[in-house]
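User: For my dataset I need records formatted as: sequence, then structure tokens, nothing else. Please produce one.
Assistant:
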Amino acid sequence: MFQDIIAGLQNGSIIPYLGAYALVGSTNKLTGEPIPADSNSLILAMNNGQPMAPKLMYEFPRAAMNQELKKGRSFVNKFLTKLYGETQWTPAPLHTWLASLNLPYLIDTNRDTHLQDAYTNRAHLLIVGLARVGGTDYRFRLYHFDGTAYQETTVEVADTSLPIIFKPLGTPRPQADFIASDADYVDYITELMGGFGMPAFSKQYRRGKQYLFLGLPLTRDTERMILSDMIYDAAQPAGWAVIPDPSDKEIRFCKKMGIEVINAEVKDLLAEVGIEAPSIKNPALGVAV
């Protein structure tokens, strides 16, 4: 099955869609600590390593909303910018491999720069999700990377023949924009449902495509709502979700969406192409669970 999926990735008929556990294997270059990416590890990193109240530990957007109300929206943005834009991380094996395939379109729901770093040797387009902004009907920024630097561009003049990286929940580079708190998600998802969360060429490209969901837990409404809108107009079946030990809730959702669940990890996919990667079940080597 993985071999057929890999062939679909290479010919552009299958779009990779990355979640938190796609970052397994990325560690802090100074301390060796795994990169915080999943909800739990992000909350701990935001709160100086200390757990928050149980109702806030449920999901990062809820915890981020709590901190935003107490300390301001800038606090959350500065935290994510420092974490992903200023801290040095080793490359994640999955991102390095995906970049080697020179894929036409990738969706990354993490807020790090790993894919962007892997694409610095080639021109590409970058789409970054936005929330709670004025002066525009759109909820995205569009950038052109010429091999040296990013320049903001428009839908009308963008070279859509270039590889496209879509970061719906944001990135610190070239400008720090993030979807993080509950309020951000409400605004972004509302506009995504209304058609203002992605460029017209993305809506055209996604028609009839299938997806490979990698490292994406589907136990929370936020992930499921973003996914449902991002893959609108998908083929049927819509693709495959690589989820180790999937919950009943995840299985039911995937069945509803026409997604086949593969009980495996990212490391199992990479093993098919001869790349060794750690398991998410070993927090010392990958993203904390």
